[in-house]
Amino acid sequence: MTLDTNASRTNGRADDRSTPGFVETVRLISGREITMRMRSKAFLISTGVLMLAVLASVVLGSIFGSQSELPKVAVVAGATDVVEGNPALEAVPAADQDVAEQMLRDGDGDVEAIVAPAASEPLGIVVLGLESTPNDVVSALSVSPTVELLEPAAVDPMLAYFVAFGFGIVFFMSALTFGTTIAQSVVEEKQTRVVEILLSTVSARALLTGKVIGNSVLAFGQILAIAVLALLGLMLTGQRVLLGGLGPSVVWFIVFFAIGFVMLAALFAATAALVSRAEDIGTVTTPVTMLVMIPYFLVIFFNDNPTVLAIMSYVPFSAPVGMPMRVFLGTAEWWEPFVSLALLLATAALAVVIGERIYRSSLLKTGARVPWGEALKG
Amino acid sequence: MLELHDVTKRYGERLALDHVSFTVGDGRLTGFVGGNGAGKTTTMRIILGVLASDEGTVTLGGEVLTTADRRRFGYMPEERGLYPKMRVLEQTVYLARLHGWSAAAAHRNALELLERLGLGERTNDTIESLSLGNQQRAQIAAALVHRPEVLVLDEPFSGLDPMAVETVQGVLSDAAASGAPVLFSSHQLDIVERLCDDLVIIAGGRIAAAGSRDSLRADHGSDRWELLTSGDLGWLRQQPGIRVADFDGGWAVFEAESDAARQAALAAAVARGDVISFSREHTTLAQIFTEVVQ
């Protein structure tokens, strides 16, 4: 066999071969990460399941939402005047009480109660239910005093809970899924030893950057797909979204998430580089996993506690959840997200620098877990 | 010409490499031999820049190596490995592109090389689905796909079947013939002996001997002579100025006091009957290695 190792010098064309710069190298590495991930069945299935869950919650929401229509009542002739004109009830006329009772018993036209005339009653009517008192019908026919709140809550607490849950779970799921993916990808290269060939060609920094960017693109792609799917579902099922109220906090969430994710990705890559076997990833990345989980639980349990939220919105690891939450609740001054963002940026930069150091010094140390001190020393 | 100057590396307290200096000439196949833990892999990793040395420099053509230079190196690490889930062609193309080849040229190079290595039918299989022998061939492809101008191969023959050994030998010889410096380590001293122009012997992190194969033989070879005749060589013990080291019927190995004594012994053998062969005893690399390392 003949192998012309000298070909590049003798007949290689200039445009066939060049010295790729950092950006070009990172593009190649991140491209490989994305291609391989898109080919992984586990990734496709988990994304599919997540999409289905989002779609299901939107559709179920619309089904439960549609039940809050006006209660229907069968109105026996003579009581029509009382019910018609009442904006909280939908009247279904019935010829006489027997017909109305039959409708109620058979469930015809979804009527919940019967309103019949009764001259002896103070209101001139009587309400008949089937098994239990039809409270919504009764309250619709009652006179309620006007209620005034001295300190009305700006946001419905139920809505606040759902928004907190939404930010929390999206951050938690994405950071954990793609953080673990990065960790696996780092250990795979160590375990299969391909890392030595890679390091003889590209720098550890390019390798780490490519991994972080590749997985960040995937994480954002997934979040974007979920957001589009959820909005489309809401529009198609005719539900109204509080986009006006949610908009600014979602924008902040995306900005914080982008930087927070890079920080976590660097930490996941660095800690994973300490071990050489896939089985050890779980143990070694536990501290980073904790950093992802704690904000999730805090925001769910303490979304009505302004002090906890205020602290969370400044601690870099929980800021991606805490600050958008406070923006949504309207408890953050306009400058607060910027201060928190600067803090997050500084921490992320530090995490990347330390992460790269650990990553670079641990990549070729196979076998036993690399001690922290040794990894940091480089 | 690839040169190492006083390369030193410490792992904590342990001195892994102690002022290692040697040269790999252009077009010279250079064998790198040494026991386990002698420092071969560490040296090669430092040449490739995968490890940093504590002292000393590595130069190519007199210039200190840069990352850009190293992209034109072909490297086969001792610890083999590729991405198990990537396809053979895809992986080879990826590595060529990391070395700076355009997508189209990388594809062309990779297909051509895989075809030559007998992997033409396997280009779309994942690495993990290949047999062990074919995985080794894919590894060779990974080291060569970017048409390197310098080759550094750590134990390229370990774990290879005889056909693959043949292929790799061809690759190394061709690379050297085209003018590239080639450095490879091996425990299989017979292959090194057959293939190499130059030798570097390392022991305990120090260079024990280095130079061309022939000059090493001259320096460390024995002064013994080997004689084979059809008759019995019992008389040789009485020959003046001759000390018989080994003897078996018509075959003997002996040392001669002087050239005259040697000539006289040969003349006596010819006078007594049929001399089949007479030569200086062949010094194997294993003998030189043992002598140098001790």
Automatic annotation (TrEMBL), chain B:
- Key word Isomerase present: no
Note the SMART domains from the entry: AAA
Residues in ABC transporter domain copies: 2-229
GO cellular component entries: plasma membrane
Which Gene3D superfamilies does the UniProt record give? P-loop containing nucleotide triphosphate hydrolases
**What keywords are assigned to this protein?**
Antibiotic resistance, ATP-binding, Nucleotide-binding, Transport
GO:BP terms for this protein?
A: response to antibiotic
- SUPFAM superfamilies of this UniProt entry? P-loop containing nucleoside triphosphate hydrolases
Pfam families given in the database record: ABC_tran (PF00005), DrrA1-3_C (PF13732)
Output the Gene Ontology terms for molecular function: ATP binding; ATP hydrolysis activity
Compartments, record wording? Cell membrane
State the annotated membrane topology for this chain. Answer: Peripheral membrane protein
The similarity comment for this entry is: Belongs to the ABC transporter superfamily.
Q: What's the protein here called?
A: ABC transporter ATP-binding protein
Name the source organism: Agromyces fucosus
